[in-house]
Amino acid sequence: MVKLYIPRDTTACSLGADKVAAAVQRLINAQTLPLEIVRNGSRGLYWLEPLLEIESAKGRIAFGPITVDKVDDFMATRCWQGNTEHPACLGAVEEIPFLKNQQRLTFARVGVVDPLSIDDYIAHEGFKGLHAALAMPAQDIVRCVTESGLRGRGGAAFPTGIKWQTVLDTAADQKYIVCNADEGDSGTYSDRMLMESDPFCLIEGMLIAGLAVGADTGYIYLREEYPLARQILVEAIALARARGYLGPSVAASKHHFELVLRLGAGAYICGEETSMLESLEGRRGEVRPKPPLPAIAGLFGKPSVINNVISLASVPTILANGPQSYAAYGMDRSRGTLPFQLAGNIKHAGLVELAFGSTLRTLLEDFGGGTRTGKPMRAVQVGGPLGAYLPESQWDTLLDYEAFLAIGALLGHGGVVAFDASVDMREQARFSMEFCAIESCGKCTPCRIGSVRGVEVIDQIRNAAETPEMNAKIAQSIELLEELCDTMVDGSLCAMGGMTPFPVRSALKHFAADFKTST
Amino acid sequence: MSEAANPQSDFTQSVKRIVQAHAAQPGALLPILHAVQEAFGYVSSEALPIIALGLNLSRAEVHGVVSFYHHFRSSPPGRLTVQICRAESCQAMGSRTLQAHAKRSLGVDFNETTANGAVTLLPVYCLGNCACSPAIRVGDKVFGNVDADSFDAIVAELSADAVEVRKMSRGDTHG
Fold first, then answer.
1. Do B129 and A10 make contact, defined as CB atoms within 8 angstroms?
2. Which residues of A touch B137 (CB under 8 A)?
3. Is B44 helix (H, G, I), strand (E, B) or coil?
4. What is the pLDDT of residues A89-103, one digit of tens each?
5. Residue B89 is part of which domain span?
6. How far from each other are the two terminal CA atoms of chain B, in whole angstroms?
7. B63 CA: distance to closest CA in chain A (Å)
8. What's the per-residue H, E or C state across B135-165?
9. What ipTM does the predicted assembly reach?
């Protein structure tokens, strides 16, 4: 039997991969073809989805996009006999430049394996990191993570090793590992991809975290908007339990670890760690003031490691190959790789795992290939709804946490959303404030009230454009908006109110003309 | 009237069973609300005191949680829930136009249900499908690269499915 890979992740399915798989299966049955369909995750070359791969002596050969209307035509070429004549043939998948030019460490297995096969996982280095960790004292595991230079991939970029050290050093009868899978930033989907395409990697990362700090229970807080990730995680957790990787004796060791999957309920703010804890404890997702740090008093008041999906999923490779192998990638204090996600109006949208230190322009042009609409690219929002909009003059900024902070921007969770020349930046600024007003937890005034006033002031600017004395009025309103931004930055309890001014200010600064024209 | 024949009591018993099934776990309220909404389509005001009693909370606390989260609804939805992503990636690919089209085409605003009870239209902030924006979600199915025409086609096809399922579930007696 020759293996034919047809992806099953959300985006591939949103482009028809399930229908393609069903149509292919019908042909296999009708003609008794020597083919076995494997539903892998996605490689993240999303503009080519549904991307089919056929096993061959020369590695896996890719064909894409193969939509359901092209299935008959595609199957007629009998690609499993080595025929690569089909017009959608892309050659060896690993040789496609978009994939070949990446450094896939955390995403090494994504799109390669069947996400729900533990054997496939093990055959691709799976659980190697766990076995290494099982042979180490807790302190050595933490030291390994510290030395790798890994920083929180959820967006805040706090050193993961320091967080783990705090939890390890805090004596308690109960500790928790909490995985923040509330990936709410627009333009980001790396958590979803990892969970749908390589769920055991996340489970392994959480197991290692548990060994490192002495926690026997983990929670995954998954957003409700990811129904397929939920289904795959439920199955993966059950499979891991059945094979003894979860439960009273992890991988036949003396360690016990239980994993609980919890569902969010459509609140962006629950991606903020203390708000997420409130939600897990059964309350409104209102932000907690810090201190106490969650590492000392976190979930149910117990010391808790709270990490993003990608942070935890990066741990197995660090343990398996040593901290230096990871730290060898990157620049300055940004070590290792970040899975960037190209989104919005971009021709080659997809996942690009790269070592820190390239430029944003590399992502947009070399990988992204410019806009999808073909118009000139005008603005790029990096790091989700709280990230700045960058004009072309800033696209040579290095992909590095500190380099982005230096220009008033953030890398965040690595989402890159491109806009073409038709974008109205006043509307984008207004949306930032509106989004904050809708999603604010309401705990602190600058965020709750400030965002509502922000929308009003931008509306005043929009309306003032129709009157003769518009310039004076607009200048007044912009001054007011700047002051409001100051208040939100200085007075908000968390990043929601504290960083909503980032996109607003970047729009004011770099796209000032959009605030002066009438609509 | 026997207990079993009283629909009010059936409802109470079902909610109680859900509460009991989850109450032992720490932080049980969200899992309970999810289970109630899954069972009945929404979290009715009648369910609140039962949940509150089961978890030793005040009714106000439960109401506060239900109203905090966008996902939990207090009134029954249409047969189909259609979410349109409003977030930036989708905006960059025409989500604003798509939203306007959807509202016009269905004759409802966000968070409203069509008069025939077929479709509830909801905004959503990111489906993680940003590589093929704009995206929508219908039930648990996500669709990418959606424009006005494909929106109408998707909603029409799945609405027909929803009606079909209802007919089948009513069985032969009404057929």
1. yes
2. 225
3. coil
4. 999 999 999 999 999
5. 80-170
6. 31
7. 10
8. CEEECCEEECCCCHHHHHHHHHHHHHHHHHH
9. 0.96
